[in-house]
Amino acid sequence: MATQTNTTTTEFSTESNNLNLTKIKRYPKSFLKLILFGFSLVGIPLIIALINSAMTIDNLAEQSRNTVYQATQLTHGNRVLLDESLAMERSLRQALILSDSSLLEGYFHAHTKFEMTAEQLVELTLPPEQQLLLEKIRLAEAIVYKDVLEVKDTPASFDVQIEAFSHILESVQGFSVIGNKLIRQEVNEMLKMASQARTTVERQLLALIPFVIVLAVIFSIVITRPIRQIDEAIYNMGQGQLSKPIQVGGPQSLEYLGNRLDWMRRRLLKLEEQKIQFLRHVSHELKTPLTAIREGADLLAEGVTGNLTKQQQLIADILHSSSLQLQKRIEDLLSYSAIQAEKTALVKQPVNLSEILDHVLQNQNLSIMSKALKINRNYSDIIFECDEDKIQTILDNLLSNAVKFSSLKGSIDINATKDNESIQVDIIDTGVGIHDTDKGKIFDPFYQGQFIPDTHVRGTGLGLSIAREFALAHGGNITLVEQTGSGAHFRLILPISDLEEVI
Length: 503
Fold this sequence. Notes:
Blueprint: H1 2-22, H2 31-98, H3 105-123, H4 128-150, H5 159-238, H6 252-302, H7 310-340, E1 349-352, H8 353-363, H9 365-370, E2 374-378, E3 383-386, H10 388-405, E4 411-418, E5 422-429, H11 463-473, E6 477-480, E7 489-495
Parallel strand pairs: 2-4
Antiparallel strand pairs: 1-3, 4-5, 5-7, 6-7
Helix pairs in contact: 2-3, 2-5, 3-4, 4-5, 5-6, 6-7, 7-11, 8-10, 10-11
């Protein structure tokens, strides 16, 4: 057994390696890398947008700082130039009126401050017009300063210098007007940049949000698709659907898991085939000795070997009844084996459904009488094409279950209707019903429900499974109908049209 398992594993590994070599790699090797790649791809546009927004805001802030700084320096410089010009003019007037050269100390102090402020303004980035005017003001003030130095000992001759300061003051005021205009232009430019930055950010967001959503949806599909494939494969195996190969796309780790699941599917399929073959062989092997037992029991019961006492007759009847039950079990096993091996064929011919129902009721008559059951028949002649033996098996299994699980003096309703497309047969009993935990499993092979009457010998659990398979072979189905109160309600639906045989 170990050698066989190792061989199978080696075959599986070889097949997996061949698949991995021949398949074009479109995914990362691991599921974690795929997730990280997806998050990275979705996050990169957001990061780029954030960086771009930060750079735009930083540029805007830098421009704002420069504008505020230049506006502050320019405003302060304008005020200092104007104040110091007035101070120099005032000092010259005082020296002229009082004819006192010692009063020129204020002039020289104001000149020094005027010159320093003018040099600071020169360092600013000013438009050519304002730079030219500033140079003109500095030159005019320097000329006045030179003249004052030459005639400082004769204050009575300061009239010319005082007159020159009136022109300097006009130029300083003009410089201030140009500076204010420049400040307004800078502020307007800054507001324009802010508006453009806001518009750019809004456009980026409007374009980025749907793009990121689309990327997120795409990667969600890419990431969840192999998981859905694995989930579907596990569900199909759980439902016994082992014929469909399992293929899982995606990262290598998930592909490997899919290959392992497919290997498990093939193993289960092989085990299922072995089980069916075993059941078929065992059933056939049991039929030969069972035939001898039945014939012997019949001979004893009929008194061929001599008259029997009451006790002997009772034993013979028990042997005869038990052999019939055993034959029914073996026939169920053979039918199930044939269905699973896909060897069941339909032999269709026109039949009357009411006659089949009457025949089934006749076969169950002894059981019905022993429980004093009331049978409510609600059907008429319905002619359609089907395999009579298999339809009879379906109805016999359904009615047999209804009789076995019905309580003493209960009732069974049998309703059959026909429309343009299908035939519907409802069998409703007043027994213990179906337990909630059994409702999803009652059609599974070999499944035994929880509600079993004490007087009932457990069967094989194949009756409903075989009935449903025969119904599906006709293109129909058997379902358990929910109902209030006690009892069970089974519904058989058969299409009237001649469908292709599926089994």
